[in-house]
Amino acid sequence: SWRAVSMLCRYTFSLESNVKLDHTLVFQIGDRQFELVPEDGRLAALAVEISGLSTSDAGSVDIPDSRNATPHIKVCAPALDEIKAQIHAFRGALAMWGVFAIDTELPKSKFVAETDAERDQMALFGFEPGFVPPHEQEPKEGPLDLIIRTIVSSDRFVELAIPFEFYRRGRQDVLKRQYIEAFYDFFFCVEFLFADGKYKKKSVEQSFHDSAELMRAIREAVRHFRSDRRVFTNLSKSEHQYFSRHYSQSAEEAASHVIDVRGFLHHQSGRRPENWDPSTQVTYRVHAHFLEWVCLVALQQVGTPILFEEGEVQRFQQTTVSTSDGRRVNWDMG
After folding, report:
1. Second label for 100, Cα 20 to 30 Å away, from 128, 247, 322, 326?
2. Helix-helix angle 161-175:285-307, to 10 degrees
3. Which H or E run contains 305?
């Protein structure tokens, strides 16, 4: 049976700095213990401990009687939101002293009981959220012919290099969970392609609405976004509701909302009743992922046909591709 025992929880946040540190430094603020943790002589992590918790605060593991059933694990993170808010309050200021980043999205968590008897009552002892970037995942079969076709036809992509570069940078920012920066990258891609050189809100909005290509890209993006298990299934209930309300009603409404979000992010003021905080990037996750799909569909609409123009097909067919040991690669052109 469960009973309340004294337990502490330790969160460790990785950080980036150029600050020399040989020994862990420990200090107390209220009921929280803070530690500056070194690695290889450099300040590399911030640890925060809270105490006075019970075993139930660590979560639970429910193992069904059936051998084939999947265990249900309930993970708890006591006071984590409050600790993250506290870190966000001072994280920017630390940049003045050589601490450039503190990752509050993926902290390591460890639960520690005071005695062995109390430890025996615990179901979980910690957890560490994980993320494996695509370049470290198991490689998948890819369109190698399209990669080579694009390189062969590189001179045809010169005029499109800027929107493609914004798209590439946006993809990188998404992987880093920098969703505000990603949104801006993707917006600039769309603006380059469809705003007709206009900058005022009403003019840009009219250009977007008048673009059949953009409207088609948005409708396709909605469909792809809903079926993207990598993203859509991981969104919160409120994000699903937000997407349905602002992005899936009509292409015109979606385009207008993208412009509104961009306008909101374009200004900052301490006097603004509702402001945005660069430390809460996840707030703009749904915007970034949706616009990522819009850009991909739009760029495929303008980029892929280039590769299959008669002249470009001939250039590709005339390009000999072989393996490093001299075996020629024959492409299936069917």
Report:
1. 128
2. 140
3. helix 285-307
